[in-house]
Amino acid sequence: MLLPRPNHHLQDLKDLAREKESLTVLISGLKNDIKRMLQITFPEFEKRCHVFSESMRVFLKQLPSARLIKAIDPWVLQQALNYDDGRKVAPFSGEDIVAEAQKSVASESIAMELIIPEHLMEKRDKIATALVVACESLMIEDIEIITSISGIGNTMASAFLAEVGDYRLFPSYKHLVAFAGLDPSIHQSGKFEGASRISKRGNHHLRHLIFLMTSCVVRQDNIFKVYYQKRRTEGLPFKKAIHATAHKLLRVLFAMLSSRTTSAEKG
User: Which residue, 57, 37, 48, 31, is CA-closest to 108?
Assistant: First the structure.
């Protein structure tokens, strides 16, 4: 038997989830700023690597310009390149990046060098970790059920549970769909009445998250991939096909949580 979840714990989860969401929005803007700044300080850099991988973030904190790379001691440069985040090390050697810096068309800008190393990624990652840990302490089985769908990880599942709260308070999946604002709105004009776009009257944080989850599962989960492609084949434009798949995803999640079954068990 599942026990009621204390409201203050659920509020803590929601606060963490929304702080992470807010940081993600800020980071998106920051990434554009960093790319713009790199076009001044080292425009060739982005062509050589993924700028926002962990190893490259660490590298750019120390050496954010062609000017600094050309002037740095070779040993220090090699140490900066040796950082390993457990997934991928720097995709070039010290000699490669020095050669690139020496022929770079970069402009010298000390001001830009000071701005580039500022990152919010670390804070967002800490918030995401705290969210998952807190959610696992309250709803570990719920997380395992949700993440059994390919494409949904612990962080996304935790954020979903934080926004939904206690799913048992929803009498049916339709109430959860309406809570997320994914229910169809009704358009009226004279004698004409018909369903049009989604209502967007519900929790916009949850709605945004559901669309993110949907964009992941249509790439990685065969059931949702087939469903999305079927709706596209039927003539639905991209956005409406995603909306239809998001509706299905929310319906499936509610059914899985209610029946306490995983995707494999349902399949």
Answer: 37
Measured CA to CA, the distance from residue 49 to residue 159 in angstroms comes to: 30
Three-state DSSP class for residue 195: strand
- Tens digit of each residue's pLDDT (9 = 90 or more) over 132-158: 999 999 999 999 999 999 999 999 999
d(CA 93, CA 238) in angstroms, rounded, equals 42
Q: How far is CA 206 from the centre of its chain?
A: 13
Q: What are phi and psi of 265, to 5 degrees?
A: -70, -35
**The pair of three-digit structure tokens given for residue 253, joined into one six-digit string:** 């999640």
CA distance 117 to 47: 19
pTM attached to this predicted model = 0.73
* Torsion sign (Cα): 171, 14, 18, 219: negative
The packing angle between helices 121-146 and 7-41, to 10°, is: 130
